[in-house]
Design goal:
The structure holds 2 protein chains of 2 kinds.
Chain A (H helix, E strand, L loop, with lengths): L4 E6 L2 H12 L15 E4 L4 E6 L4 H6 L5 E5 H7 L4 E5 L5 E7 L11 E4 L2 H10 L5 E4 L6 H4 L5 E6 L3 H5 L3 E9 L1 E5 L1 H6 L1 H15 L4
Parallel strand pairs in A: 1-3, 1-4, 7-8, 7-9
Antiparallel strand pairs in A: 2-3, 4-11, 5-11, 6-9, 6-10
Chain B lengths: L17 H20 L3 E2 L5 E3 H7 L9 E3 L5 E4 L4 H9 L9 E10 L11 E10 L4 H17 L6 E6 H12 L3 H12 L3 H10 L4 H9 L4 E2 L3 H8 L3 H20 L5 E4 L12 E6 L8 E6 L2 H4 L6 E7 H7 L9 E6 L4 H15 L2 E6 L6 H6 L3 E4 L6 E2 L2
Parallel strand pairs in B: 1-5, 7-9, 13-14, 13-15
Antiparallel strand pairs in B: 2-4, 3-4, 5-6, 6-12, 7-10, 8-9, 10-11, 11-12, 15-16
Helix pairs in contact in B: 1-4, 1-12, 4-10, 5-10
The chains are: A alpha/beta, B alpha+beta.
Chain lengths: 211, 395
Amino acid sequence: MSKPLTIAMPKGRIYEEAAELMQQAGYDLSADAEKSRKLILEFPEQNIQVMMAKPMDVVTYVEYGAADIGIAGKDVLLEQDRDVYEVLDLKISPCYVAVAGLPNQPLSRIAPKIATKYPKIASDYFREQGEQIEIIPLNGSIELAPIIGLTDRIVDIVSTGRTLKENGLIEYEKISDITSRLIVNPVSYRLKSTEIDEMVAGLSQAVGVEA
Amino acid sequence: MAKRLMFEKPLGMRDTLPFFYNQKSKAREQLKTSILSYGYVFMDTPFLEYHETIGKVSATKEQRLFKLLDQQGHTLVLRPDMTAPIARVAASQLKDAEYPLRLAYDGPVFRAQQAEGGKPAQFEQVGTELIGDHSSYGDAEVIALLVESLKQTGLDDFVITIGHIGYVKAFFKDVMGEDIETTEQLLEYLYRKNYVGYREKVKQLGLNDEKKKALLALLELRGGEEVFTRSKSLARNQVCMQAVNELKQLFKLLSNYGVDKHIRFDLNLISHMNYYTGILFEGYAPNLGALLCNGGRYDTLLPSFQLNASATGFAIHLERLVEALSDYSNGETRVGIIVDDETHAQGIKRAAELRREEGYQVLLQHIDQIPDLNEFKSQLREYEDFTLKGAEGNE
C-alpha cells in the first residue's frame, strides 16, 4: 500500500462542513471523530490520514509538505502568501474581510491607525487606496480598538455583522470575499497526482464546479 | 536588539556537520561523475558579483538578494544562482569558445530568507548549461543527463514535469488577442498556483463560451503523452502547434535515452514569470516538500550580456537531494588503531599500511586520551587495539 494521503483540516466548525463535503465526494472522514482529542486521525481503509490543525496553521503544514492537502480559509491564504496550489473553492464557511469603525469617524489625517489580525491584507488594501496607515496587531476582540480610541478603523472577518452592530460599529468597505479553499503542496500535486486529481474531481462535483 | 548568543547564526544559515558533509560529498561526486561522462566541463565563478551585472538579470527576486557595498560604494550581491554568472563568463572570457558549449558547476548560492525557518539561505547547486544549441536535441540531452545523474545517486522514484512557456504565451495570444493586461493577470494566477482565482477571472471575462472553455481546459493539460493531442486541439495557431511538436519530439528523444519513465507534462507549468522562453521543467521527489531540481531554456539572458545565443540547463538542489535519499547507508567508514607509549611506532606503521594497501580511513589514537574505551570502539567500523597483548581487534 502506498503512503497515505495526508490532509490538514481545521479544527472546529469548518471540520464538520468539510467532512460533509468529503462525504459527498466519497470519502468518509466521520466528523464525530473530531470530538476525540486526537490530533491525527487514521482512515486506513481509504488510505487517508487527517491532521487536526489550527485554521491559521493549515497552510503552513501544506507548504512544508507535512500534509499533502489542506483546507484553508482564503483569509489565511491572502495574509500569508505561501507557495501552495489553490485548486478549488469549497464554498464553505463564507464570510468576508471588511474595514469597520465608529460611524461618522473620518480617518485621522496624520497617522491613520488600523487594528487587525491581518496586517498584510490591511496594509495591501490601504496601499491600493493610496493611504499610508499604521498597523496595531491584535489577536482577538478587534472591535474593542476603535471603541476605546486605540485605532481609527479595524480590518476583520465579518460573517453576520452582528458583533459589529452590537458594539456600535459600522462597516465602511468590503475588502474581499472569503471561503474555504482546497490547497495542495506543489510536490504532492505532481507525485500523488492520481489520488489528488480523483479527490479534486469528487469535491468539484460536490460543490458544483467544473474542474 | 538582544545580544547574540554564542551559538546563533544569521537567519537561514546552517552548519554542515561531518555526517551530513559526507553524505553531501558522496552525492556530489556521483552527480559530477555523470555530468563529466556527458562531456561537460566544470567551472566556478566568484561568490560576490556586481548588482548591476548579475543581480539585475538573475531570476531571483530583488528582495531575496543579499546585498553589500564594496569600498567604492558599488552594490554587490552574493550570487543568487549560477546561471547568470556563467552567462557572464560565456559572453566574455569564453565568447570565442567552440559552440555548443557544455559547462557545469557545483557550488553554494545565496538567497535571503524573509522571516521564517525551514528554508536555508545558503544552499549548494550542481548543474549544467548547454550554450549555443537551440534544438530539441539539446533540451533532450539536458533532461536525460538530469535523470541519469539523479539515478546515479540511487534516487529512483522521482518525477520530472515538463512545460512549455512558448505554448502558454501563444495560447493566450490566440484566445485573448491583444488584451495584454488580462493576459498578464491570468499568467500571474497560474504562476501563483491560484487556480480558483484563475477560474473566477475567466468567468468574469466578456468572452464567448468557447474561449472560456479553452481557458479553463488549459488547467487540465497535464499528464503523459496523451496531453499532446488535447494541447493541439486547444490552440490552433502556428506557434502553439510548433510548441506541441517540439514537446512531442522531445518526448521521442527522451524515450531514445530511455528516461521517459520519469517524465510528465504540464502545459500550465510556469516556474518563473519572465525567465524561461521555451521548454522548462521541474523535478520532484517523495519526502521533499519542495522542488528537487529545475531548469529550462532561456534565450534572453545571454543577449542581456550581448551574446546572441540560446541556452538550456538544469540545477539540482544538493541538500534536498541528500534529504530525498532516505536509503543512504550512513555507516561509519573509519577504522581505528589504539596505541599506548610502547606501541605508538608500531601503530604508525600499521596505519600507513592500511591507508596505502586498503585505502581505509585510519585514525591513530593514544589510549590515554580516550575517555570511554568501549564507546570509542563502538564508533568505528573496525579497530585494532595494540595495547592488548597480541594486538587483538574486532575484525
